[in-house]
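Feature request disguised as a bug report, sorry. It would help if multi-protein outputs had a clear separator. Right now it looks like this:
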Amino acid sequence: MATQGFFITGTDTGVGKTVATACLLALFRKHGLNVGVMKPIETGVDPECSSSANSDAKFLMEIAQCSDPLSLVSPVRLKTAASPYQAAKMESRSINIERIINSFRQLSDKHDPMLVEGVGGLLVPITPNYLICDLIRDLGLPLLVVSRNALGTLNHTLLTLRAAQQAGIPVRGVILNRCEAGGKDVIEQGHADIITELSGVPVLGEIPFLGEISEKSFTDDLLDQLEASLDFRELLATG
């Protein structure tokens, strides 16, 4: 049976992939699921000196209350804040794709569902001839696209969805992320319907602005708010 879960990508760097992944982890845990997490490649982090404050992988492990080895959760960790290929090139390192896939298989044997957070967007290079979209295909997970709900998101989101479809990657849906405090204007209120109309991909809801979050942020009230904001029944029907 195929592993259930999602690969979480974004339309760009800084759109809230890690926030969205953390919210999904907390919701799946609320429902009693044995959820596993993976950040296969992390850049911009010192492998010898990192914490949940400056490492997405360690932060997600904290949210998931994960006891899996960091070497499986995040098998590739690079200090340079750049694409994996550029960071590895600058550090005179090579990225072992098979190690990433084997780590995923080991974790997926222990957990169901699995949430795997990517780095950057779909066309970010891992090696000269292997992109994030190639990794998604090899892991065999459906895609969730996190998009910033702000001016410009239509272009970024539709480009990402088209790239996924052209690569033959099944897309479960789009999650909008509110990156700034305050109400939505009339333009932002219309984004979800237009994305679905033009792409045929459902928008599964919007994560409200959360600011800085930690494990303690996910109170019962916040989890109820998130569950009301997202089409969580669709997300629970993983696979």
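(second protein starts here, but nothing in the output says so)
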Amino acid sequence: MPSIRPTGVNFHKVSHVLELSFEDGSNFKLPTEYLRVYSPSAEVQGHGPGQEVLQIGKQDVNISRIEPVGHYALCLVFDDNHDTGIYSWEYLHELCVDYDLKWQAYLDRLAVAGYERKTD
């Protein structure tokens, strides 16, 4: 499978959305909360299956900096001081394509744990 690279990366700070475009013409908008709770860092993912750490209270998190990592990834630095996730192009594409499924899975995990997201 060829490497998946975005043709455009645009961060909308006010709306807390990272917009990604790909060579096939697809365009996705990912909320910063979603990116934060699915950070690929060991702090969030753990060190193996079943070790994931449920992230709560991230509705208002924003990205303070986006740093390129070579030609293969981005490091998203969040304003809650989380800065250890390296988001490869492939992982970002997975987050885009599987957004609905992953977002619902996150909401389900919150509900099972007894947490409720605050809404505006």
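Even a blank line would do. Unrelated, but nice: Residues 6-112 form a domain with the NE0471 N-terminal domain-like fold (CATH 3.30.2020.30).
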